[in-house]
What does this fold into?
Amino acid sequence: MKKTLSILLAAAMALGLATVGFAADIERSNHISGFSLIVSSRDDNAEYRSGAPYLVTYGPDNGAATDEENAASKVKIEIEPASGQRITKISTHANSKNVKVSSKIYDGMSPNPPVVTIKGNAGVRDLDWEDYEVEIDLEIGDYNVADGRTYNVEDVTVTIYGDEAIAYSRICEVEDDTNYTISEKKGCVFKFIEDIDETVRIRCSDDVDVYFRGDYGDDELVNLGISTDAISRVDDFYFNTNVNYYKFLGSPRPGSKVQVAIEADPDTYLYEFKNNKVSEINAGYDNGQWYFSTRQLGTYFVADEEYKGPDDLNSDSSSSEEETEKIPPSGDADNANKIQNPSTGSNDYMGVASVLLVISVIVVAGLLFYHNYRKRRRS
It folds into this structure.
């Protein structure tokens, strides 16, 4: 009897665990999406970990996404309902900030099942591989082919877990005496695993090279991605002038000094933009390049004409390149931190009193006019 009870108890516990959720696989798909998973109306709280795609923010959107070296910036996962079932509603939610997610219902079943799209959203300083989590809410039930309706619809939530499967970029290991060029396929994050005895050149853009030689730490990751977007606050001081901007994402700080080389004409001007301040760089020029050494890579611009704006663009506020302090609508920065006396309401009361006085005068005048009118009629 006790043995029977034990078996029944174990079976009940197993059934209870099964209702909480189970682990399932995300499969490679032959369709255009590349990935697929199967869900039934009994799969509430199911977890999909194995086979989760590898994602990056900077990278090709058509990568295989099967591992770190083939991570993609965007993947599509087909949500296949179990045989004889149909998905009638789908919504998605990213439970981590390093991914973005969206979905389309399509026909709700094969050959056009719903598709979930996941995009990499890791920040420029998120260089190590981290976890991500995506939640999918479904309404799924039994599909009747005869009348085209879906019955016994259940609310089902499943979760995709990407374990250490999201980073800003694919990672390239740096070897001594080797040249590299940044691309979506190779990535813009470089891993230094040994001292660089022979110079390594990394081409960060068509115009910018960075040279490494020295000790940059063990397993040190450096993001050398560059943005060439214009800096509006600087651009305002140039008219009909060619200006090229180079912003190293996240202002990386390698373990040792590096040399930066920027291709430019000899009669150009080189500046650094830091904390909303413009300063000319003490750089050399040779063989069509400006070059200088630094411990921290920042934001630079090359212009055909000399910069004639203010060196400190914080003169009207205490803003910085990434953060701007709010100033009162009056624009009076000196009074920004002064404590304002609370209003006593005296002005409001004076206004009300003035209105009441005017009304009183009108009423008295009316009464006098009426009294005189009746008096004249009697006479």
User: Anything to note?
Assistant: The radius of gyration is 34 Å.
